[in-house]
Design brief:
single chain, mainly alpha, 20 helices, 0% strand, globular
Length: 431
């Protein structure tokens, strides 16, 4: 964690944060002004911000600045994420190529009434993410289905993707095996069950309200395409059953994807599909992840320089000096983790970054450890779900082939969760 006692002036802090501000200005503000989120390529905005970050990082030779950028971009956690992206692309393309996605969509349509496809996807994402503890794994499992369900039903694809993302973050926030839960409870020194109980009063009402919105909006977003239910080819559904089943028992998402790809290849060969055709399908899927991988690397490098130059330290020091009372302390913890999450685009990293200072704030102002852990986890999940350059959104939209900003207007859950978080700060519970 950056040392908040380090002497970072306001001028230095704003300068350090300027690459993030430049990126947000180029991508979000320009897109909003012209009314089209497809016009401004997110990679171009990130490249511009990355170059600016290297330029403003004073005190180092240009070669040293590039080395810092490259080292942060090549951090093991980032590279692991990229491996997941590569495998997810290969699996999604292969499953679609052999007909597994179509067969799975047909199975869903046979068991879920068409008008309830969106709430059904939201509930599925909630349950899967709760069980596997990873929003990324949930996105990998369900986004290809959302893509095909949209094609079959005529439902707006960003609407379906938003339902998947919302449900994925519900489970990420609550699951006992989520890295955000583990980070929040360890940094605050509380039991996971206690944190879960504190979180449940915030996340569950938000999820129920979101579900009600999805159910009630069925008339506003009707199924427009006419489709005929067909007999389900369950052998083609097996790769998805395998992926979801293995994920539900807590197996690492990389291992899950490996076995998913293997199972899909075996089914393809047994059905007489040429081996080179399957290789081509996988290659196309990997190629489709190229833009996502580039954005991820550049974001990690840029944000690493922001932290190196004192941007995170400045944010922490700026807001911790204005705390008044227990409610103010709680609001500060939630706000701090959210701001740092904007700068790091990683909710786990944000929690770890502000964990120690949040614990100090909690002790000083009488905030329970379970509450501070809940605030950290919930605040970071809200922001991570909303930013268009978060790994989960980038992966989901890359798999769906839409703009990272396209699902934003349908992301009801994080906004409702933010309201519930504010209510939980205002109303003090005794338990």
């Amino acid at each position: 964690m950056a040392d908040i006692s380090s002497e970072v002036t306001a001028k230095q802090g704003i300068k350090a944060l300027s690459p993030v501000l430049l990126f947000l200005g180029m991508y979000l503000i320009v897109s909003l002004v012209i009314g089209d989120f497809y016009k401004m390529p997110i990679a171009v905005a990130m490249l511009t911000a990355s170059v600016w970050a290297i330029v403003i990082c004073s005190g180092e030779r240009i070669a040293a600045r590039i080395e810092i950028y490259s080292r942060e971009a090549g951090e093991p956690g980032i590279l692991y994420m990229i491996w997941i992206f590569i495998m997810a692309g290969a699996f999604a393309s292969l499953a679609k190529g052999i007909g597994s996605v179509d067969a799975t969509v047909n199975a869903v349509l046979n068991f879920c009434p068409p008008q309830y496809i969106v709430p059904g996807m939201f509930v599925a994402a909630c349950l899967i993410s709760m069980a596997i503890g990873t929003s990324v794994g949930t996105v990998v499992a369900l986004t290809p289905l959302a893509l095909e369900l949209s094609a079959e039903s005529g439902l707006d694809l960003p609407y379906l993707v938003a339902a998947v993302l919302s449900g994925a973050f519900f489970g990420d926030n609550l699951s006992f095996i989520s890295d955000t839960t583990i980070s929040a409870t360890r940094t605050q020194g509380c039991d996971m069950r206690e944190k879960f109980q504190a979180n449940l009063w915030i996340a569950l009402p938000a999820a129920l309200v979101t579900l009600a919105i999805y159910v009630n909006s069925a008339a506003e977003y009707p199924v427009t395409a006419a489709f005929t239910l067909q007999r389900v080819e369950w052998v083609l559904v097996l790769p998805y059953i395998l992926i979801i089943g293995m994920a539900l028992v807590g197996i690492n998402v990389g291992v899950v994807l490996f076995f998913g790809i293997t199972a899909t290849l075996i089914i393809a060969l047994l059905r007489g599909i040429d081996i080179m055709d399957t290789m081509t399908m996988m290659g196309d899927g990997i190629d489709s992840m190229g833009n996502l991988i580039i954005i991820t690397l550049m974001a990690a490098g840029m944000l690493g320089i922001v932290k190196k130059c004192g941007g995170i330290a400045y944010i922490l020091r700026l807001f911790t000096g204005k705390i008044r009372g227990s409610r103010g302390a709680q609001a500060a913890i939630a706000f701090l983790v959210g701001i740092v999450n904007i700068c790091t685009a990683n909710n786990t990293v944000a929690i770890i970054t502000v964990g120690a200072i949040s614990k100090d704030i909690s002790k000083r102002f009488g905030v329970r450890a379970r509450k501070s852990a809940s605030l950290l986890d919930t605040g970071s999940c809200i922001v991570q779900c909303l930013i268009p350059y978060g790994a989960q959104t980038l992966l989901a939209t890359a798999l769906a082939g839409i703009s990272p900003a396209a699902p934003w207007r349908y992301l009801y859950y994080p906004w409702i969760l933010a309201v519930m978080l504010a209510i939980s700060i205002i109303i003090k519970r005794k338990s």
